[in-house]
């Protein structure tokens, strides 16, 4: 049974606590008016995992990395770009590769999206992460379309829950997210990448109902809220 705590910071930013180690995903907090109550200088992760280079996933990486000395984990291009900004504690990865860290294993997997860094530099190919640990396993999809590659995750891992984009327009909507959950083999979806901008505003009650009709439980924590899965 998974016992992983997730704290939501809005948009696609989550802090996972695994066996006492804090891992921050895709911090876009200070530019997000919905997350104005979050004190980003109080966020002190040991690791920062970045799925792709878009501004709405990397905006606070530099500040939080400097404050916390966290290790930045992402693809080679994104890591190299942040090294140019003086971030020294880094670990580059690329698709299909995995690495053991002190909290568990990280695998960098395919995502179908785009990935350009805020200054226009190429961000390499976008990805997602599969995290496997003694406390549980989960899939953090990043921004992606539904893809058959997700079936490989279900074939290889016992996934306890999946953090999936549900905002539609730029990524999957809830309908495709329920299929993605089927592919990776979980009935628990944590929604992300919704409501931040007009393009991705959703009807949350309708999304929850659609998930239920597909046999899934959709979690939509409030910004600043922690849940344990």
UniProtKB/TrEMBL annotation:
Pfam families cross-referenced by the UniProt entry: Lactamase_B_3 (PF13483)
UniProt entry tagged with the keyword Hydrolase: yes
Keywords, sorted A to Z: Hydrolase
SUPFAM superfamilies attached to this UniProt entry: Metallo-hydrolase/oxidoreductase (SSF56281)
Cross-referenced Gene3D superfamilies: Ribonuclease Z/Hydroxyacylglutathione hydrolase-like
Coiled coil: none
UniProt GO molecular function: hydrolase activity
Domain Metallo-beta-lactamase intervals: 10-193
HAMAP family named among the record's database cross-references: UPF0173 (MF_00457)
Family statement: Belongs to the UPF0173 family.
Protein name, UniProt field: UPF0173 metal-dependent hydrolase SAMN04488057_11842
Species in which this protein is naturally found: Cyclobacterium lianum
């Amino acid at each position: 049974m998974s016992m992983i705590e997730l704290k939501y910071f809005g948009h696609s930013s989550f802090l996972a606590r695994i066996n006492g180690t804090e891992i921050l995903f895709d911090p876009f907090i200070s530019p997000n008016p919905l997350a104005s109550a979050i004190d980003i200088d109080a966020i002190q992760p040991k690791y920062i995992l970045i799925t792709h280079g878009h501004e709405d996933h990397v905006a606070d990486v530099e500040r939080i990395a400097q404050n916390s000395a966290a290790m930045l984990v992402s693809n080679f291009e994104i890591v190299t770009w942040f090294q140019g900004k003086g971030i020294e504690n880094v670990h580059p990865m690329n698709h299909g590769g995995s690495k053991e860290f002190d909290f568990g294993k990280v695998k960098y997997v395919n995502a179908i999206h785009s990935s350009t860094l805020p200054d226009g530099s190429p961000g390499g190919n976008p990805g997602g992460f599969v995290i496997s640990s003694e406390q549980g396993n989960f899939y953090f999809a990043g921004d992606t379309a539904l893809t058959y590659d997700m079936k490989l995750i279900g074939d290889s891992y016992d996934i306890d829950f999946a953090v999936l984009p549900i905002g539609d327009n730029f990524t999957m909507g809830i309908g495709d997210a329920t299929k993605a959950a089927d592919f990776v083999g979980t009935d628990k979806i944590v929604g992300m990448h919704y409501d931040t901008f007009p393009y991705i505003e959703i009807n949350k009650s309708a999304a929850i109902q659609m998930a239920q009709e597909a046999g899934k439980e959709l979690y939509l924590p409030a910004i600043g809220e922690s849940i344990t899965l």
